[in-house]
């Protein structure tokens, strides 16, 4: 029997997959539903009733493709949340910022349901490192220039020089130069690079460990 095309109304012979006039699909698909029944959905109703993401939500190929695309909104929220926590975790030298990057990917997974590939996870972790560093830098700058704590930091660095066996008198001038506006900018930029690198490593590690955990419940 012939039938009319749902899109242009042309009469089409049964069994043809596409309309020869407008190329609209002329097929029906069977979609499983939780009640173990099958419903017939015509091609014209498919886009409005069910999305491809829903159909393939359990497909490993679809999940692998999703891991290669960042949900920017979830990434920003995860980086901000982990970055704020990183201000406190950062009291652990170096390891604290690595943990901050790890937490960023953990928070991303909780919000999006997926763990990105390592390269994208490192970006999420690095963003969290930037947030944590920025907050710490602001607090330190305020403390130095507004509350005049410069001498306190100079004394701390001098004590550290003594502990490592350096002659503090020779490097004291260099230490003071670090607290000039130019020296402070250079030193902050240097430490920011270290923070981003360590947090990125934490994000990449999270990509590996969290995906391994997901695949072995």
Rough shape? rod-shaped
- Which ranges are low-confidence, i.e. pLDDT below 50, for 5 or more consecutive residues? 38-57
Q: What is the domain tally?
A: 2
Count of helices? 9
Mean pLDDT score = 75
Q: Given the helix and strand composition, which structural class is it? A: mainly alpha
User: What's the helical proportion of residues?
Assistant: 55-70%
- End-to-end Cα distance, whole Å, is 52 Å
Please indicate the percent range of residues in DSSP E strands (runs of 2 or more): 5-15%
Strand order in the sheet with the most strands:
1-2
Largest sheet: 2 strands, antiparallel
Number of separate strands: 4
Rounded radius of gyration (Å): 29 Å
N-to-C series of helices and strands: EEEEHHHHHHHHH
Task: Please tell me about this protein's structure.
By secondary structure, the protein is mostly helical. The chain has 2 domains: 2-50, no CATH class; 72-215, no CATH class. Helix content is 64%, strand content 7%. It contains 9 helices and 4 strands; from the N terminus they run E-E-E-E-H-H-H-H-H-H-H-H-H. The protein has a two-stranded antiparallel ribbon with strand order 1-2. A two-stranded antiparallel sheet has the order 3-4. Helix 4 (72-89) packs antiparallel against helix 5 (95-112) and helix 6 packs antiparallel against helix 9 (181-215).
């Amino acid at each position: 029997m012939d039938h009319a095309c749902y899109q242009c109304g042309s009469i089409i012979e049964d069994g043809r997959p596409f309309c020869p006039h407008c190329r609209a699909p002329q097929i029906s698909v069977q979609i499983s539903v939780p009640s173990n029944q099958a419903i017939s959905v015509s091609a014209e109703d498919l886009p409005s009733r069910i999305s491809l993401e829903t159909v393939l939500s359990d497909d490993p190929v679809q999940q692998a493709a999703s891991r290669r695309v960042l949900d920017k909104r979830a990434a920003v929220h995860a980086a901000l949340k982990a970055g704020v926590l990183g201000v406190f975790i950062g009291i652990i030298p170096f390891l604290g910022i690595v943990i901050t990057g790890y937490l960023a990917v953990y928070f991303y997974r909780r919000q999006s349901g997926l763990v990105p590939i390592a390269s994208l996870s490192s970006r999420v972790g690095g963003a969290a490192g930037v947030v944590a560093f920025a907050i710490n830098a602001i607090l330190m700058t305020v403390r130095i220039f507004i509350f005049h704590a410069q001498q306190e930091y100079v004394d701390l660095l001098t004590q550290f020089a003594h502990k490592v066996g350096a002659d503090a008198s020779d490097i004291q001038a260099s230490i003071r130069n670090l607290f000039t506006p130019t020296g402070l900018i250079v030193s902050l930029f240097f430490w920011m690079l270290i923070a981003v690198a360590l947090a990125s490593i934490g994000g990449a590690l999270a990509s590996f460990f969290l995906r391994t955990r997901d695949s072995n419940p």
